[in-house]
Amino acid sequence: MGVAAPQQEKKLLSRRNFLKLSALAAVGLPIYAGEISRHELSIERRTIRLPRLPEVFQGLRIAQVSDLHYANFTEPFFIRKVVREVNRLKPDVVVYTGDYISIGHWPTTQIDGFAYKCAEILSEAECPIRYSVLGNHDYAVNRWAVTDALVTNNLPVLTNTNVPLERDGKRLWFAGTGDALSSDVHLDQAIPKATRIDGEPVILLSHEPDILETVAKANVDLMLAGHTHGGQVRLPLLPPMFLPKYGIRYVEGLFQMGPTQLYVNRGIGTVNLPFRLNCPPEITLITLA
Length: 289
Fold this sequence. Notes:
Elements: H1 6-36, E1 42-48, E2 61-65, H2 76-89, E3 93-97, H3 108-122, E4 130-133, H4 136-152, E5 161-167, E6 170-176, H5 187-190, H6 193-197, E7 202-205, H7 212-215, E8 222-225, E9 253-257, E10 260-264, E11 282-288
Parallel strand pairs: 1-11, 2-3, 3-4, 6-7, 7-8, 8-10
Antiparallel strand pairs: 2-11, 5-6, 9-10
């Protein structure tokens, strides 16, 4: 019986090691993406200059949270962690940009209940000025129940409407749209006339980012969106794995078209699979300048 030559034995060992490492990666990567990376909360700090912003609002800090997807892989303890982080940041305004619940495998009445539980946790944000809009999952399940859950918990919903923030006789408007996938974006109702007539600045909350081209024609200074989850799973040298309709052109971060700037938040929760990779959940802290 022959004995393997040292070089041949080295090759066999290398092949065995490669197979072992491959097996570990096949098991370990889903565990990392599902249990660790999915909970690695990132605070993204951005300073955004708005040319029309009155001096009295310079330095205003806005915390944006998006895409909670309560119970569809996003645990209540993690949403509570998000709210604690928001409170630690001490923003002047908190905005929630949609998808509090998910289309899932539960009866609609049970998912409605998730909306109330999610809104109750989000209401623990200590900032007194809070605004919200709905997302495509909220509309697909029950937009009326989600709206009631938010309003009941003192989280005003800006569905094709607006509200002014006033300081020293100057105004900064917060506006919101309905869901683009449900054809409920009505900018003529959402954008206040004061932005067109008096040049007052407006920040628009709208779940889906890919309506930017339309929004840029409506005298909007800053649009805040979510919906994309930043692609959720991002492998090296490959495009994002999960991108929804109306969330393909503007995936994450800051963009500009004409006079309108757009910030796309990566969201907190996940859809399709409970995985995130190279795409951590995000709280955005925007400082206006």
